[in-house]
What we know:
- Helix 3 crosses helix 5 (121-131) and helix 4 (76-93) packs parallel to helix 5 (121-131).
- 35% of the residues lie in helices and 21% in strands.
- It has helices spanning 13-23, 47-51, 54-64, 76-93, 121-131, 178-188; strands at 4-7, 27-32, 42-44, 103-108, 136-141, 146-151, 154-157, 167-172.
- The chain has a single domain, classed as Rossmann fold.
- Strands 3-2-1-8-4-5-6-7 form an eight-stranded mixed beta sheet, sandwiched between helices.
- The chain is an alpha/beta fold.
Amino acid sequence: MGDILLSGGAAGADTLFALCAKALGHEVYAFSFPGHNGxxxxxxxxxxxxxxxxxxxxxxxxxxxxxxxxxxxxxHQLRFVRNLLLRSAYQILGMPETGRPETVYVVTNLTxxxxxxxxxxxxxxxxxxxxxxxxxxxxFDMQSNHWHxxxxxxxxxxxxxxxxxxxxxxxxxxxxxxxxLTAIGNLYGVE
Length: 191
């Protein structure tokens, strides 16, 4: 099996990870669901696959001091956001077809205490950090313009991570900064 990127197929960092991965000949799985664009390498998860991660997301929400309801809401917009969060589990846990990622790369912002990622990426980061199989986790903080890795419960600055290879996850902010774009390009060695 060659190099495989697992992603969420969102605009911003996810899209750039997919473009760079494709440029290097990596296979892309952009986990998605009906009604979501998904981008390059779109892999639609069915409702049963999404719901199978519900309890994991309930626990993730507790760890983040956020609420995730195990029951699907009636409102379309809330259901869409819920599906985005459920899809996060697959970015970290993979599928039988892909295997589990050995490394997770995230480009987003950190909270001031450097304990959590901000935004929607926080759910995937939390699964990777505390609830999954312990992949190597690298986070580029767009505020400090530095790569970080998790040491105990705090993200500490580190050297640039290794070039993505094997099975890995690349995700991050929709509103990516110029520094975030550069970080992803440099990570892959493409401009």
